[in-house]
Structure formats: C-alpha cells, structure tokens
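User: Predict structure, ligand flavin-adenine dinucleotide.
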Amino acid sequence: MIHVVGGGLAGSEITYQLASHGYEVVLHEMRPLSLTGVHKTDRFAELVCSNSLKSVDVKNASGLLKSELEKLESFILRVAKSHSIPGGKALVVDREAFSGEVTHVIESMTNVKVVREEVKSVPEDDDIWIIATGPATSSKLYSWIQKEFGSGAHFFDAVAPVLQSDTIDMSKVFFANRYQQGDDYLNCPMDKEEYISFREALINAQVLPVEGFDRKLLFSRCQPIEEIARSGEDSMRFGPLRPVGLSDSDGKKYYAVVQLRRDNSIGTLYNIVGFQTRLKWNEQDRVFRMIPGLEKSRIIRYGVMHANVYLEPYSTMDEFFKSRKKKNIFFTGQITGVEGYVESVASAIFVAINVIRAFNGKNHITLPSNTMIGALMAYIAHTPNLKPMYANFGILNRKDVGEIGNLEEFIS
Ligand SMILES: Cc1cc2nc3c(=O)[nH]c(=O)nc-3n(C[C@H](O)[C@H](O)[C@H](O)COP(=O)(O)OP(=O)(O)OC[C@H]3O[C@@H](n4cnc5c(N)ncnc54)[C@H](O)[C@@H]3O)c2cc1C
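Assistant: Predicted complex:
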C-alpha cells in the first residue's frame, strides 16, 4: 500500500500519477479538521497566495520547467491550463475552479482512498509513505520528523491580499500589460507625491507579531511589501511598483504603478501583485486604500505571514528523495527545499517515477542534468545547508539545455 500525506500541490500530483498507473493510494489530508495558517479551504491543491504559476515563456526558467512537466504529463499543469485566465505571459488560474477540479478528479479515482486526518507520525510498517505536507506541515508531524531524522529548518513567506473588484474606482485605473502586450492587468498609477506618502505609511504601519520572526529569514524572492519599502526610497519602484513599459490609453507614463491581477475567471476578484504583507488587517485597509483607485476597496482575503518549514535534505534524503534512515519513506513538495508551486509539482513527478520503478522491480533513476527538472532535483539533493531553491538559469546553463523524455520512457 502507498500512503501520501498531504493533499497539496505535490500530494495531489503524486496521488494522481500513482493511481492512474494502477496503484492503490491512501491520501491523508488534515484539512478541514485541522487548518494550516495559510490554507482557507478543504480543497486539494489550494493555492495559498498568488494565483500565478509564473511564466510560460520557455526562455524563462519557470516556463522551461513547465514545458518539461507537460512532456512528463503533469496532472496539475493540465488542470491549471484548463482553468487559466488572462495574465499576459504568465499561467494564471481561477484558483477556486482549479482546486475544485483537482479535488473532484482525485476523489473520483476508484483506487484512491481519501482520509481526512492529521498524520502525527509515520507508523513502523512496510508500506510506502510519501510525505508531502509542505511549508505548513503540522507541528506534531514536524516535531516527529525533527526527532526521527534530526533535521529541519524554516524561513518566512507571506501572502498578498485579494480585493473585490466592484469596490475599485475604475475611473482612476487603466487596463494594460507591460510593453503593450495585452490588457490583462489593472494598473493603479501614482505620481511622486502619492508614492512617497504611500511608502511613509507602509513603513510606519503596525505589523502582526509572528512567532520567531527574523528579517534574516525572509525569502529573497517573496519579501513583504513593507520590507521592500523599508529597504530604500526607490526599492518598490524597481520591484512590484515598477512603471517601466506601462502607459495609459493616452500614452501617459507614471512615477510608480501598482498592478492588480485577476483572481477568478469572472473578474470579481483581483489580487495586488507583489503585495505579500504582514501588516495588521486594519492597517492593510488603511494603507492600501491610499493607492489611487483603491480608496473604497474591500479586501476579502488579507495578507498574512507564515513560517515555511523544510528538511535539511542533504542529510535526510538520498538523491531520489528517499529517507536515508527509513527506506519506505519518501519526501516530496516544498518540504524537500524546492520553492514554488511548479517546483513542488516537479518534485512530485520525480518521486512518482521512482516509486513506480521500484514497484516494477527497477532501479531508481535521476533525471537528465541538462534539463531544468533534473538540475533542480540534483541541486536540492546535493547541496549541504540548502536554502530553498526555485527553477533558474544559475543551476542549469542556458546553453546546455537538453530535451526531457516522456513519462513512460522514465517509468519503463
Ligand atoms: C505563505 C506562503 C505563500 C506562498 N506563496 C507562493 C506563491 O505565491 N507562489 C508560489 O509559487 N509558491 C508560493 N509558496 C510556496 C509553495 O510553493 C506553496 O506553499 C506550495 O503549495 C507547496 O506545495 P506542497 O504540495 O509542498 O505543499 P502544500 O500545497 O502546502 O500542501 C501540503 C498539504 O499537507 C497538508 N498537511 C500538513 N500537515 C499535515 C499532516 N500532519 N497530516 C495531513 N495533512 C497535512 C496541508 O493541509 C496541505 O494540504 C508560498 C508558501 C507560503 C507558506
């Protein structure tokens, strides 16, 4: 019997892959009985923050990884594409429709048994256990992992707020993508004075206390907006508020621009791009209403900050993401130290391939090192004192990129 612990992005992908190859899977998911600090629903593959799965351009590292996952027949990517909504060059999804379909498909699979329970430890048995409990692994299971494997680290990550679109003042904002490539994004333009007062308010706003919070443990790619603001007067203008390539219908350019991205297919919800935050909720209302067009906006999901846990993979698991100590336990998803939705899915496909091969009496394999998925998995497994890693052209030389094979090729 195979047990998957955690019905997030990685857990859903691996459950689907194993079940669709004929294996019986028990999927243990603790929601809704026990919620994490970031998930809000009982659905599988809930996107906890942005509804963007990043670029689809293969010249971009994330786009390349997605193109490889497509060849490897990723279930999550297929569902994401079928619920995509306009988002320029990014794969942006209607989050409710996306997680709704993932849940429906998994629950309909006859060889998947879904058990809604918190797994607090892995029993001593001969079953295969795949731990996919993600950055918000329950504290009891995380304590067991730390005790059992002597491993564990964390960093801090935050979520951006979502607004109700009929509360946006459309007379002050304009639709446009950067460099006139469509009009999927809503843009809230700021002049210099507005930008400076907004920054002042952000820096001085009250934040929610977060247990053990340490600025040094913030993830560099997902800094809260107030931390970006604090780091320098122009930092936001070179980050999420950068105005380059954006002009209104009269061709007018602005000092800074806040972008809003559609959150659902019917356009009733928008999220504020790059506005991860740990401001107190009443402060989010007060400060974000200083943004032109958002004076009367209503936030329906506030930003929050959360500690992200992960293993120290180098000492805990081998290059196939199998526990060094207990040969029937695998790890996958963000708990292994990959960072990001798509990267978590990639690690699930990698582990699925090796679990299926083992059941077929075959040796485990690594994936080609000249592919983004192969390079990322190798980086995770071989780097001592790993800091979480996402797809990028630092771990894979752009000039060396090779073609990934298809799923059946790796399994058989
Ligand atoms: C605050 C925050 C914001 C993030 N924002 C982004 C973003 O915008 N873009 C991006 O690409 N990535 C983001 N990430 C990173 C990450 O890619 C996602 O969290 C992603 O969902 C990880 O996938 P996963 O399957 O490993 O974990 P998850 O999707 O979190 O799934 C883990 C599942 O395990 C369940 N679970 C936990 N413990 C137990 C237990 N003991 N027993 C049973 N079930 C359990 C949880 O309920 C959950 O359903 C963010 C992470 C955090 C914490």
